[in-house]
Design brief:
Blueprint (H helix, E strand, L loop, with lengths): L11 H30 L1 E2 L7 E2 L3 H8 L2 H34 L1 H16 L3 H9 L22 H28 L13 H4 L12 H20 L4 H6 L11 H11 L3 H28 L3 E4 L26 H4 L17 H41 L9 H31 L26 H10 L17 H16 L5 H26 L2 H6 L8 H9 L15 H17 L4 E4 L13
Antiparallel strand pairs: 1-2, 3-4
Helix pairs in contact: 1-11, 1-14, 3-4, 3-6, 3-8, 3-13, 4-6, 4-13, 4-20, 5-13, 6-8, 6-13, 8-11, 10-11, 14-16, 14-17, 16-17
């Protein structure tokens, strides 16, 4: 009898070929606009007068009068509470849900999904604007503090913290939960000491969890700061940088300089400085992921999730007599059970069930507390949605303007990223260190439309596309965050499969590409800055832009708070997200060098 022929691995050269579209998209939509932004920052002038080269004069003025530093400090202060939520509250909630068992964990995923699909920065800010009315309801009345320069900064910080609590916590928990799937036994490690908790080993269950949680925590913290540095919608809707410029953010300062004052040079200077900070953060996050050998994999769902299981003996180890293994639930004498591991029968199993009950109770209580706090923080928005009148902001035309470009842009940017991820992470053209190729894209990992907005607007004007439907499509041709996640997933799948590339890497990673495309579409749809720059005709307004226009009108009607999150869209998105959570995302495991994914039986 002949042994079956192992599957033939594709040539690494195919990996380079698959990365070409992402490299080209990065050059066109990221590298060249970045160089253009830097060049514009060295000039004065813009739309209303001819540009002239002035060297670093814009930077000298910007940094010399403290304008940039004041905006940077206030922008960072807006991130303080969301950062605490992301790195303190979220991991605690993730641990509680993970230890609670299968159904509390999945219920938590469903609840958290609702916070994600209903989040709209403009909608939340518009709801808080209702607090400026004389008969402001409840918590929204805190917005009254936005009128005074002395209290406006603190009030805006509170509003941003409350308005983003649910979505920040939800996204961070989604990142931490897969890291809790890391097992306690390093891959390829053998020896009794590793099962008994000897010094220097990873014997205790969960010992392999700490590295993954730490790496994920660092990346989550960096991402939270990077996103916060680009805060625009809350500031524009609630204060427009006032009163007396006390709430000016970096994005607001760039927008005012480049588009309100029609001075591209100073605006591009702010964009360049912001981009440098974001570039450093992106490189650091990528280095952390690559140096820790971070990877994502999909665990099997065939085994029953019945609670913690004892660690298995190394392959080929001699079988020792099981002393009292049936009556007492002990392990074979040669291989003692790791501390905390439960056996399948006897008193130990009963003890495991008791601990599971406590864990379940703690998880349920933690989820209820999160839900209560999230509802309180979101109440101004909920009340605003319930009281919203129908308006042009929620019309079919504005929804088409919002969602067609958002979905189209997401399909292109994530599709290009997915091809590169298959090449870099799945085919490994540089072997073990292929993920270091992500450093080519790292400077733009956290860069949104804001820092490149001046250059991209100028390009749209030069092509005659301003005030056209085509201009509403996001200008980024490749999603670098999706590229990072998908590369780590393809890497993890390639390292842990004995199937061919199609069955072992492509098919298991394809659902994640679809999930990320949906996530990017939601982000594109809620973006305010880009459609605000390129569409001045009311017939081209997206829902967020129409909401802002409504707030700036002289109409006595209240703002249409729910225009950017219509019920049909929320329902469809929620169904898709819940299905993704239960069928796919709940099976993901994040591991680092020296850790492995827990088996399905250990995930309850």
């Amino acid at each position: 009898m002949t042994s079956p022929t192992p599957p033939q691995a594709p040539s690494p050269a195919l990996g380079w070929l698959l990365a070409v579209p992402a490299l080209f998209g990065t050059l066109i939509s990221l590298v060249l606009p970045t160089a253009q932004t830097i060049w514009l920052s060295l000039q004065r002038g813009g739309v209303l007068r001819e540009s002239t080269y002035v060297g670093f004069a814009n930077y000298g003025k910007l940094l010399g009068d403290g304008e940039f530093w004041r905006a940077a400090w206030f922008t960072l202060s807006l991130v303080a509470v969301p950062l605490l939520v992301a790195v303190v509250v979220a991991p605690l909630l993730a641990v509680a849900l993970d230890r609670a068992g299968t159904w509390p964990r999945r219920a938590g995923r469903i609840v958290l999904s609702l916070a994600i699909v209903t989040f709209s920065p403009v909608g939340v800010a518009a709801a808080w604007m209702r607090g400026l009315a004389p008969d402001a309801p409840g918590l929204a009345g805190l917005a009254e503090g936005l009128r005074d320069p002395a209290t406006a900064p603190g009030t805006l910080r509170l509003i941003v913290a409350a308005g983003t609590f649910g979505v920040v916590c939800a996204l961070a928990v989604m990142a931490f939960l897969p890291a809790l799937r890391a097992g306690s036994v390093p891959q390829g490690f053998s020896g009794a000491s590793s099962f008994t908790g000897a010094p220097g080993s990873s014997g205790a269950p969960g010992g392999g969890v700490a590295p993954g949680m730490l790496v994920v925590g660092v990346v989550v913290a960096i991402a939270t700061v990077a996103v916060g540095l680009q805060t625009f919608s809350f500031g524009l809707v609630l204060t427009r940088g006032g009163p007396e410029r006390s709430t000016e953010t970096l994005a607001g300062l760039q927008y005012d300089s480049a588009f309100r004052m029609a001075e591209f040079g100073p605006g591009a200077s702010v964009a360049t400085l912001t981009g440098v900070i974001l570039g450093v953060l992106g490189i650091v996050a990528t280095v952390v992921a690559a140096a820790s050998r971070l990877s994502i994999t999909v665990t099997s769902r065939t085994a029953p999730e019945s609670g913690p299981t004892p660690l298995a003996a190394p392959a080929g180890a001699p079988t020792a007599p099981a002393v009292g293994s049936t009556a007492q639930g002990t392990a074979p004498a040669a291989w003692p059970v790791a501390p905390g591991a439960a056996s399948a029968a006897g008193p130990v199993a009963g003890a495991g069930r008791g601990a599971g009950s406590v864990g379940m109770a703690v998880g349920i209580v933690a989820l209820v507390v999160f839900l209560a706090v999230a509802l309180v923080c979101a109440w101004p928005w909920i009340d605003g949605v319930l009281a919203s009148p129908s308006s042009e902001a929620g019309s079919l035309r504005s929804q088409v303007n919002t969602w067609v470009p958002a979905i189209g842009g997401a399909v292109v940017s994530v599709g290009v990223a997915y091809l590169a991820a298959l090449g870099i992470g799945g085919l490994r053209p540089l072997g073990r260190g292929s993920e270091w190729l992500l450093l080519v894209f790292a400077p733009w990992l956290f860069v949104g439309t804001g820092p490149l907005g001046v250059a991209n607007w100028q390009n749209m004007r030069n092509m005659g596309l301003i005030d056209s439907f085509l201009a509403l499509f996001p200008p980024l041709l490749v999603s670098v965050p999706a590229l990072l996640v998908l590369t780590l997933l393809c890497k993890g799948l390639a390292e842990r499969t004995d199937k061919d590339f199609f069955g072992g890497v492509f098919l298991p990673s394809l659902p994640m590409a679809g999930i990320l495309a949906g996530a990017v579409a939601l982000m594109n749809a809620q973006d305010l800055l880009w459609p605000l720059l390129v569409a001045q005709k009311p017939t081209l307004f997206t829902a967020p832009v129409a909401q802002v226009a409504q707030l700036g009108s002289f109409s006595s009607a209240g703002p249409d708070v729910g225009a950017a999150t219509p019920l049909l869209v929320v329902a469809v998105a929620l169904i898709a997200v819940v299905a993704a959570q239960l069928l796919y995302l709940d099976r993901l495991a994040i591991t680092t060098n020296g850790s492995r994914a827990r088996t399905a039986a250990a995930q309850a």
